Amino acid sequence: MADRPILPRPVFPADLFPEGAGLALPGVRFAEGSARGLVHLARPREAGLPGPWRWAEHDGLVLIALAPGQWLVEGPEAGLETEAASRFGGFATDVTDGYVPFRLSGPLAPAVLARLSSLDYGDEVFSVGAAARTPMMQIGVVIRRLADEDGPAFAMETPRSTARDFAHDVRAATISAVSRE
């Protein structure tokens, strides 16, 4: 057998995204997020972590509440697992390679998300600082509301194994939302 590296399938394949790595239509932009380290943190000792349905920045790290006693920590890749464990205590597991980050922004972003899941993404309910772990078209996604850019903005993490399917679902929802405007 030939020695060939196993490469991941592209998240934005040319047949679905002829415009390149992402999608930009009137009122909405969807793209792969910037690469950063990601660590799952369980049972930390540190107080002051964000509570349920919230995320917060803490000395250059992003902490996302997932469930009671569980958080995702996002930050620089080098040494993140060790840093999270020493800073907050508990058990830290590097999951960087298991997830793909995405960003969705623009005035139509909440309408796109409403086509993908049953959460209310309105400003009153899912405001800046809100976070959730939810299924979107049967794919698990961690989503958080960012500060508004050209409209509402969201950061999402989804498992690498389903990232291409997730990108396809977001593309279809985006085209549907734009066509209704």
Uncertain ranges? none
Kindly name the structural category.
Answer: alpha+beta
Q: Strand tally, please?
A: 11
- Strands of the widest sheet, in order across it, are 1-2-8-11-10-9
The SSE order reads EEEEEEHEEHEEEH
- Major sheet size, sense and barrel closure: 6 strands, antiparallel
> What would the average pLDDT be, to the nearest integer?
88
Total count of helical runs of at least 4 residues:
3
Broad shape: globular
Determine the strand fraction and express it as a percent band. Answer: 25-35%
Q: Compute the gyration radius: what is it?
A: 17 Å
Question: How would you characterize the overall build of this protein?
Answer:
This protein has about 180 residues and is α+β, with helices and mostly antiparallel strands. It has helices spanning about 80-90, 110-115, 165-180, and strands at about 25, 30, 35-40, 55-60, 60-65, 70-75, 90-95, 100-105, 130-135, 140-145, 155-160. The protein is about 20% helix and about 35% strand. The strands form two sheets. It has a six-stranded antiparallel sheet with strand order 1-2-8-11-10-9, covered by helices on one side. The longest helix is centred in the last third of the chain and has 18 residues, at about 165-180. It is globular, with a radius of gyration of 17 Å. The model has no long low-confidence stretch (mean pLDDT about 90).
